[in-house]
Design goal:
single chain, 153 residues, alpha/beta, Chitinase A, domain 3, two-stranded parallel sheet
């Protein structure tokens, strides 16, 4: 087949193109720092891949560089308003559900890490408690959630 019909920038098999979310890229200050660190890592990996001439690594590194450049370019640092009593972006929230307490911080999509108590603001749980106040009861899926504590750092 003629090279004219081969897409040059196609990703090698097994390398998935990272899709940039259509949601606003709200981040905490630490989330912005994480994006900047990931962007720098992607730049270094891209440079190393160019030097080595490894096309698969270059494609993967280019993909990461595009993703993190886009995320840095549209990042919007959101600082919680400490005068508000309502749950908001950046808040650390403690809820009680089915007799168990759970604490998490509401953060941006890229900084979300549920196993470390950070959930994305677009997650169903975050959406359920946003703009609610301590003492409010919220129906979430098949259970009721009581907001026990909420504070902004």
């Amino acid at each position: 087949m003629s090279r004219a019909f081969v897409k040059e920038d196609a990703l090698p098999e097994g390398v998935l193109d990272r899709t940039v979310s259509a949601n606003p890229n709200y981040v905490t200050a630490s989330g912005l720092a994480q994006i900047e660190a990931a962007l720098e890592t992607a730049r270094q990996a891209h440079g190393a891949a160019q030097t080595s001439g490894d096309r698969a690594q270059l494609a993967k590194a280019s993909n990461e560089l595009r993703y993190w450049s886009a995320r840095r370019g549209n990042a919007q640092v959101v600082k919680p308003d400490p005068s508000r009593n309502a749950v908001q972006f950046g808040s650390t929230v403690t809820i009680e559900r089915n007799g168990r307490k759970q604490t998490f911080q509401i953060v941006g999509e890229d900084e979300a890490d549920p196993s470390n108590g950070k959930i994305s603001y677009v997650s169903p749980l975050a959406r359920a408690v946003m703009n609610r106040e301590v003492g409010d009861t919220v129906t979430f899926r098949d259970s009721e959630i009581v907001i026990v504590a909420a504070h902004s750092d």
